[in-house]
Amino acid sequence: MSSPRAPDGGALLWDAGWYRFARRLDSPNFGSRPAGARIDLVVVHSISLPPGVYGGDEVQRLFTNTLNWDAHPYFKGIEGMQVSAHFYIRRDGALWQFVSCDDRAWHAGPSSWRGRGNCNDDSVGIELEGLEGEPFEPQQYEALASVCAAAAQHYPIQHVAGHEHIAPGRKNDPGAGFDWPRLRRNLGWPAGWFPQGSC
């Protein structure tokens, strides 16, 4: 799939949908985007495995189908899940990428935003290491703003939402601890690109 490229050289940051400043770890959990998909949405998530535990490699293992389901009681409740996101940002701001942004990652599930359903089809999914409702680190906001800005140079991004906004009642992340005004200030994007009332 060809993607719009900004005249300011945004394409130099990308190679077939892979961001040059992210650590690459390929996930098998992805598919092709539907024909004509307009990649114009960023979805912000939060994740930690087990919940509230940081610093391990469990999220990477989940996204690559190598998590040991017997390693923690919580894992038995998600055993067999096949999910992924395009990006994962650690507490220290380290950025990982699992799926090319030209492809469809499995991060949103049943969802709807800006009058369209199936948000996986036309979104970039970014997971923050954290617990929904809890604060995130300054380094994470910096990395998130950087990858959002880079994505907008390469794709027609015009919307940013949390998982809680695209799947209300089913998902609550990133939650009340996420500072939407801070992200908007870092990006300098219009308020209308963000969930109503968040900024």
CATH classification class? Alpha Beta
Write the H/E string, N to C: EEEEEHHEEEEEEHEHH
Q: What share of the residues lie within helices? A: 10-25%
Average pLDDT for all residues: 94
Beta-strand proportion: 15-25%
Main sheet overview: 6 strands, mixed
* Cα-based radius of gyration, to the nearest Å: 16 Å
Query: Unreliable stretches, pLDDT < 50, 5 or more residues?
Result: 1-9
CATH fold node name: Lysozyme-like
Going by helix content, strand content and strand pairing, the class is alpha/beta
CATH architecture: 3-Layer(aba) Sandwich
> What's the domain count?
1
H/I helix tally: 5
Strand order of the largest sheet: 3-7-6-11-5-12
Task: Walk me through what this model shows.
By secondary structure, this protein is of the alpha/beta class. It has a single domain, classed as 3-Layer(aba) Sandwich (Lysozyme-like), CATH 3.40.80.10. It has five helices and twelve strands. The chain has helices at residues 58-63, 73-76, 138-154, 163-166, 180-187; strands at residues 14-15, 18-19, 23-24, 30-31, 41-47, 87-89, 95-97, 104-105, 112-113, 116-117, 123-129, 159-162. The strands form four sheets. The chain has a six-stranded mixed β-sheet with strand order 3-7-6-11-5-12. Strands 1-2 form a two-stranded antiparallel sheet. It has a two-stranded antiparallel ribbon with strand order 4-8. A hairpin with a 2-residue loop joins strand 1 (14-15) and strand 2 (18-19). Helix 3 packs across helix 5. The longest helix has 17 residues, at 138-154. The chain is globular, with a radius of gyration of 16 Å. Residues 1-9 have low confidence and may be disordered.
